[in-house]
Amino acid sequence: MRTRLRDGSEVTVGDLKKRADRATELEREHQAFENSKREFEAKQAQIAASEQSFQQLITQAKAVVESRIPPEPDPALLESDPIEYLQQKGKRDAALAELNKLNEAERANAQEAHNKRTAEHQARIQKEGDLLREKAPEFADPKKAEAFWSELKTIGAEAYGFKETEFGNVSDHRVLLMARDAIAYRKIQAEKAKALDKVKDAPPVQATAPGRRVSQSERESQVVKEGMNRLRTTGSFDDALAILNAQS
User: Fold this and answer.
1) End-to-end CA distance of the chain
2) How far is it, in rounded angstroms, from Cα 61 to Cα 65?
3) Is the pTM of this model over 0.70?
């Protein structure tokens, strides 16, 4: 059974059921992705909050230490009072050493926060990759995956104006699945256009005389004629392919 959609295209009831099932599945996937996204953002926010809190404390500590750093001792003290010179220099060196410790702690904390963010990002990319291969097993084949990325970059640049570097930030498996389907749809449309061009100028088929035995070629011609009549009404890609198969 077939039914006509609002845009005038025809689909089978079976296709509609498949689309409904797919829509339900996409809704579940969307909810799972949103949950994962919120979890990822919460962890990133926690890392940022911890880093900010530490940065505030370290900045205050550095300000206190810097305010207590004695000036350079007067070189003249080396001759007049070398002991005083060494005492002043010792106090200054100790304060500078304390400041260096704080600076080192600041750098270590920044590096640790960076490592945590990187690890979380890599874990998310890995999870998205696993979901992609689960939904589309062909991506597990390195050659097929490489071919897809090459095709995506070419079509993305030629048809939509994307830069190649922009694809490096794509990790959402849903976006990649949608891109795969879009590429497949473009190929189907291209084949459909070729099929319609091939049959639109086909000569009309003459009816056979009554009572005469119908030959194989005449039966094939009748199939083509009926297919042409359907094609003029539906514009269906399937009807166009049926005509091509009958003529082959």
Assistant:
1) 27
2) 6
3) no
Smallest Cα–Cα separation from 61: which of 99, 95, 35?
A: 99
Lookup: tokens for 167: 């694809």
Q: What is the pLDDT of residue 163?
A: 84
E strands, the chain, are 2-4, 10-12
* Residue 7: pLDDT band with limits 50, 70, 90: low
Per-residue pLDDT at 84 = 92
186 HSE (CA, 13 A, CB side) = 13
The DSSP code sequence of 93-112 is HHHHHHHHHHHHHHHHHHHH
Name residue, tokens 């597990």. 140
Phi, psi of 47 (to 5 degrees): -65, -45
Token reading at 231: 């094609």
Q: Quick check: 96 pLDDT over 90?
A: yes
Q: Which of 173, 174, 153 is nearest to 162 (CA)?
A: 153
Judge contact between 109 and 51, C-beta under 8 A. yes
Q: Within the chain, what is the greatest distance between any pair of CA atoms?
A: 137
3-state secondary structure of 3: strand
Q: How many CB atoms within 10 Å of residue 195? A: 18
Q: Are 236 and 230 in contact (CB under 8 A)?
A: yes
Task: Give the pLDDT score at 168.
Answer: 75
Give the count of beta carbons closer than 10 Å to the beta carbon of residue 102.
18
Residues 103 and 62: beta-carbon distance below 8 Å:
yes
pLDDT band, residue 89 (cuts 50/70/90) = very high
Between 29 and 175, residue with greater pLDDT: 175
